[in-house]
Amino acid sequence: MSRKLLPTTVVGSYPKPKWLNRLIREYNEGKIENEVIEQAFRDAIKAVVKEHEIAGVDIIWDGEMRREEMTSYFAEHIEGFTIYGEVRVWGNNYYKKPAIVDELRYKDELAVQDFKYLRSITEREIKVPITGPYTIVDWSFNEYYPTKEEAVYALAEVMNTELRNLVKAGANYIQLDEPAIPTHEEELEIARNATEIVTRGVKAYIGMHMCYGDYSKIYPEILEFKVDQFDFEFANRKFEDVKIFKQYEFTKDLGFGCIDVHTKKIEKKSEVKENIKKAFEIVEPKRVYIDPDCGLKLLPRDVAFEKLKVMVEATKELREEI
Amino acid sequence: MKFLTTTIGSYPRPRWFREYLKEIEGLQKEGHDIKIDMEVYKKALKEVIENQKKAKIDLLTDGQLIWHDFLAYLATKIDGFKMNGLTRYFDNNVYYRIPIAKKELKRKKSIIEEEMLMASEFEKNIKAVLSCFTLAKLSKNEYYSNDEDFIFALAEIMHEEAKVLSKITEYIQLDEPYLLYAKEHEIETAIQALEEIIKGVNAKFFLVTYFKDAKSVYPYLLELNVEVLGLDFVEGFEKNIESLKEYGIDNKSLQIGIIDGRNTKIEEISNIESKISRILDVISPKEIYLSPNTGLEFLPSVKAHEKLKLLGRIKKNE
C-alpha cells in the first residue's frame, strides 16, 4: 500500500474531546439541535486529524468521533437489527447488544460519509476501519437465522456492498476489525468464508485487526484468509506472541501493535525502537506497518497523543538505520 | 407428577441499581471490592424478587445482583483467594476476574449467607446457589500441591456454608456447568467433592448444569445424592433425551432448562410444551421444575422480564 518503509498508522479510535462528550450527552437529552451536534462532530474530527498529523502518523482515520462503540453503531445502520437494551460485559460495564430479528439488508451507508469528509480535510493516506461481520454477529443475539453461520454470511453480503461503495468513494485501505475471531477457533472456517464474501470484488488493500484472545489457536490457519494484512496487539503481552508467528512463514503484511493502550505510561522511544525490531523476526521490514495495539479511546487525550508521537519518532529513527 | 417453575440464579440488575453501582464502584476492576450500601441493595433485591412473584414463579432465586464475576464471585468471599485479570466466562461474551488461590483457603465469614438472609425477608425459601468444582476450574491454584486438594478444600468450605444456609432455606442449588467440560479423570473427584458438600446437610439439593448437554457425565450425576438434576434442554435437547432414555433418572426430580436464557427470541408456548412432552415420554419423575437453561442476566432486562412471564405461563397450560 504505502510506499514508505514502516508506515505508521492507527487502529481506529481516539479519545473524544471532553467538550464533545458533553455535547453528545446534551444532544441525547434533547437539548441540542441536529446541526449543532453535526458541526461539533466535524470540528472534533478536524482537531483529532490535526493531532494525528502533528504526531506524524502516515495513515490516519477520523478517531471514530461518531461511534460510541463497535457493534451497535453498525447494527443500527443495517436493516434487520434491533436493540432491546444493554447487557453486562463485566463488572459494571454494559453494551448495547443488538438482536437480529429479520433478514439483514443494506440500509444506510456505514462509513462512506465519514470517509468522504475525512478525505476533504486531509492530504494523508486514509485507512477505514469497520467491524467485521463475524464479530458483529458473535456479539449480537440471533432471532432470525436458523444458524449463526447463516447470519454471519448474510451480514457479510450486506457489508460487501458497503466495502464496494467505500472503494467507489475513493477508499483504498479498509481494515476489518474482528476481535471475536480468536475467541472461537472452532468457527474459523465460518470467519474465513465470511471474509471471502465481505471482500469479494473489493479493489482495495484489506487489513484485519484482531486483539485479545490466544493467537496460537488460530495461527497459521488464518493465513488462508483473503486479506492483505493482519494487525495484532503485541505490547499488551510484552511481545511474547512474536514467537507464535515465527513458527510458520508469515505470508501477509504485518500490522505490528507496539504501543500498550491499557496503560497510561508513555513508552520510551528507545524501548519502542527495540520492540519494533521484533517484528522483523516475523517478516521483512518492507512488509511491516507500525501502530498501537488497539484503539486509543480509553486513554486520556494527551497521553494518547504522546504515545503516537513516540511511536512515530521511534519509527523514523529506525527507518534511518535499516 | 408435580410441576413447578424456578429460576437459575442471575437476573439483570434494575437500571437505577446499575447506575448506583457504576457511581460508587466505577468501571474498573479495583472498584469491585468497595462496600456498597446494603439498604440500597435490598431495594434492588426486592424488585427482582417481586418480578418473579408477579410472574408466578414457584421457587425463586435472588438474582445475584452483586455477583460481578458470575460464579467466580464466590471466591471473593473466601480467604486465600486473590482476584486477577479478566477472562472469558465459558463461551459467552462476558468476562470475570480469575480468582487465584494464594494461600490456604478459609471460610472467614459468610459467603452468601448475608445475601440469603436479606432475600429471606421478602420471601421464604429462596433457592441458594453455590458452586465447587466449577469455581475451582474457573480459578487458578497456586497454593495446593495438586488440584484434588484444591477442590476438596473448596468442598469443605462450601459444606460449612451449606450447613449455615440450610437454616435459612430448604433449597440449595449447586451450579456445576464445568462438569460438562471436565476431563474423564476429573469427574470422579468432582463428584466426590460435591458429595462432601451435601453430606449431612438438611436441605433439598439441586445439581444444575448448563451451556451444553450432559451426555459425557450423566451416569455420574445419577450417582450423586441430590434430589434434583438440572439439565440444559435448550443447548442439549436431543443428547439429554438420549441420556434420560438410556439411564433413566432413578428417583430424582428433573429441572428442565427449557427457556433460552441467552437469546432474546421469545419461544412459542406450544413449542416448549411439545418439547416437555417429548422429555416426559422418556421418563416420569415425581417432580418437574421448569426453568430457563441459564441465569437471565445474559439478556437485556426487557427480554428477561418477558422470558420470566413466559415461564410462569407454561405451567398453567400444562
Tally of alpha and pi helices of chain B: 10
Order of helices and strands of chain A: HHEHEEHEEHEHEHEEHEHEH
Q: What portion of residues of chain B belong to β-strands?
A: 15-25%
Number of distinct beta strands of chain B: 10
Provide the low-confidence segments of chain A as ranges. Answer: none
Mean pLDDT over the full residue set of chain B:
95
Unreliable stretches of chain B (pLDDT < 50, length at least 5) are none
* Total number of strands of chain A: 11
Structure description:
The complex is a heterodimer of chains A (322) and B (318). By secondary structure, chain A is α/β, with parallel strands linked by helices. In chain A, 38% of the residues lie in helices and 19% in strands. Chain A has helices spanning 18-28, 34-55, 72-75, 112-121, 133-138, 148-168, 188-199, 242-246, 269-277, 301-321; strands spanning 59-60, 78-90, 93-106, 125-126, 128-131, 141-142, 173-177, 205-210, 229-233, 253-257, 288-291. The radius of gyration of chain A is 19 Å and the shape is globular. Chain B is 39% helix and 19% strand. Chain B has ten helices and ten strands. Chain B has helices spanning 15-25, 38-54, 113-120, 133-138, 147-165, 184-198, 218-223, 237-247, 269-282, 301-317, and strands at residues 2-5, 79-88, 95-106, 128-130, 140-141, 171-175, 204-208, 228-232, 253-259, 287-292. In chain B, the strands form two sheets. Chain B has a seven-stranded parallel β-sheet with strand order 1-10-9-8-7-6-4, with helices on one face. Chain B has a three-stranded mixed β-sheet with strand order 2-3-5. In chain B, strand 8 (228-232), helix 8 and strand 9 form a beta-alpha-beta unit. In chain B, helix 5 runs parallel beside helix 6. The longest helix of chain B has 19 residues, at 147-165. Chain B starts with a strand and ends with a helix. Classes of the chains: A alpha/beta (322), B alpha/beta (318). The interface between A and B is medium-sized, with 21 and 31 residues.
